[in-house]
Fold these 3 entries.
Entry 1:
Amino acid sequence: MIISDKNKIIFIHNPKAAGTSIYWALYNKDNGVRKEGDTHSWAKDHDFRFYPGYFKFGYVRNPWDRMVSYYHMMVENPASHTGHPLWDYFREINPIDFQDFLTRCIDYVTVGDSVMSFTTNQIYYFVDRYDKLLVDFIGKVEEIGIPNRYLSLDIPVTNESKIKKDYRSFYTDYTRDLIANRFKRDIEYFGYSYGV
């Protein structure tokens, strides 16, 4: 998680949901921002009692768009994150295309003693083991830039993907439904749909 003590803000960085841009927005308000734990750690992994009065937030992204972004990030930066179990798994299976990536990486992967997934529902970054929400605000990447009553940040576009095509062009009926089933919880909770 990312912490700004000066502004009393905690950002839970859900992967592939504008996290780098939000980090820089926080840094621009407070160059003393710091990380605690793993960059992409879940809210339930932290004891927020040590941060009374801090505003806790995160962002989510349309699951179909997010998976296209995940795939292209890994294809465009294959040598990145050496030693990270999921990246190493990706390099080992070497998917031939997006559909192969989805069908081979959609479930949980056992890597050594760890069970990991590219496709964890995003809501799990923000709830405890009883499904109690631990953050004050969850925004949608698709709505960044739209003023909201919770957060006033000038969020720059950074780490922009080279993908310029509509995410729907990457899907077949089969893979569209695969993501709909795998991310059912996110789709229902955040009101996402294919094409919106």
Entry 2:
Amino acid sequence: MSIDIDKESGALVVSGEVISNNLDEVDFAHSSLGSGAVRAVFDNRWVIYRRIKIENGGLVFRFLDGKLAEVDLAFADMASGWGCWSEDREAFAKSLHDQWLVRHLGPPPYAFEWGDVQSVHDPKAGGSQIVVRYRRKATVSGALQG
């Protein structure tokens, strides 16, 4: 599975399937990516889809109030598990993420009208990933929309 990101819109393209920031959870759940994922609900507002494999890694989609809010990308061998984990391996994973971002979005910072992107390493969780966060737009009434 290949993955790309459009710098102008923030849309992700995963093996030809376009994931835009206005995607709603119902449509995602019926997509080829969502149908095979593990779904979890938190706080009645957040719905998370995990275990979506891509080449050498995986994706996590987070929906807030039914609209796509965040996507995590990780380029690492998910099958290796914790038995192969090391700080050096995570530093290498983060460097792969940093390189991918430069290839697809140019040099940091990655702040756009549609949202922001970060390459992060969380030492407490022991993982590294790219986090794409979409901005929610305020409507005329003041309510937020995806």
Entry 3:
Amino acid sequence: MENLTIQQVIADYGYWALFVGTFLEGETFFLLGGIAARQGMLTPWGVALAALGGGFIGDQIFFLLGRWRGVELMASSRRLARKAVKARTLVRRHALALVLLSRFLYGFRMMIPLACGTSGVHWLTFLALNFASAVAWTLVFWRLGDPTHGLYGGPAQAGGRHHRSAGLELFLGPFSAAQVFGGPARALQPSAG
């Protein structure tokens, strides 16, 4: 979807468009929501909450879909099957890091929750880590699109200090979440429950 079209959808449907857009795609809708907030069409907090909710609920649904019909779904196309094999192998080796970083790995955002569902990651563990990841992702991309300090205006343009800070947050956000939720790493081992 082109950015101009996405901007029009956000202008017409507001927070619901952001929620659905971040449920399916993510960053593009979120950043354009930041621009809409800068233009006064939406509030920055509303943009952040809609994006957080859409991203979190989207990944939960893909995880549950993986638990329910993941194997059949992934076998339905060659492209998905290739990605599924890679994703399940990675989940078995690095489940904690993948759940926390899945939103930041382009091309695997939907596949990793599906693979976690088919690999037996406990639902409660996935829920907690997915929430931590969603919060980190929201903070990073809210900062990038924040109308007062982000890439699109405000003090960030004056001194550049905030640009370096946003880049650091983009790099360190998921790792901070890993430190907070590092305790459940053993719970991510595949199980029957």
